[in-house]
Specification:
10 helices; 199 residues; DNA-binding; Homeodomain-like_sf
Length: 199
């Protein structure tokens, strides 16, 4: 029997491939090759599944990243670099899910509320990293928005911006960070260039 996690993962896959209208018990059962009895073992109905799916989306594509970055430790800029690496490693999959959830949010209040919470949490985390890095308080909100909007926008253009190209954009943006003038593009956070390297 499939686990609750299996059903939720199948839900994200169906959502990203065919959109919210395709999220039906029949489609999910077909995806997993299981009967409705297995579905109802974990969920009372599609309303409960939708709530679980939204919580899974928030956990998988926001909380998981933040928790892993915080466990890794390091300086604020090292953590920001780590966050970027995690997100870009899953960019294709993450972007497809993100686009589908945002389209769904335009038509469903519960989904919209979840997306608003996710956006707020992501922006708050980026602001906190900027402040910890010693960035100007007045720049904290604009910088968080810059980093976040680049990510969201990269998945909306056609074709989407490739992860490697997106990394180049972020390297450029990171030069605005407090020690950005001493770092070369692609240089790991914490590896400060020597004065000779800047001359």
């Amino acid at each position: 029997m499939a686990s609750r996690q299996d059903w939720l993962e199948a839900g994200l896959t169906v959502l990203s491939e065919d959109g919210a209208p395709a999220l039906t018990i029949e489609r999910l059962c077909g995806r997993l090759g299981l009967t409705k009895g297995s579905f109802y073992h974990h969920f009372k109905g599609m309303a409960g599944f939708k709530t679980g799916l939204l919580a899974h989306f928030a956990a998988e594509y926001t909380t998981r990243y933040i928790d892993e970055v915080e466990r890794s430790g390091g300086s604020p800029l090292a953590r920001l670099e780590h966050l970027l690496t995690l997100v870009l490693a899953e960019e294709d999959e993450r972007s497809r899910v993100e686009i589908a959830v945002r389209a769904w949010a335009a038509q469903d209040g519960e989904v919209r509320a979840t997306q608003e919470r996710v956006d707020a949490l992501r922006l708050d985390y980026l602001r906190s990293l900027w402040r910890e890095a010693g960035g100007a308080e007045a720049d904290a909100v604009p910088m968080a928005r810059l980093l976040y909007l680049v990510l969201i926008g990269a998945g909306q253009v056609v074709p989407p911006v490739a992860a490697s190209d997106l990394r180049e954009v972020y390297e450029l943006a990171m030069r605005l960070a407090p020690d950005g003038r001493t770092r070369n593009p692609g240089q790991a956070a914490g590896n400060v260039a020597t004065p000779e390297a800047d001359s």
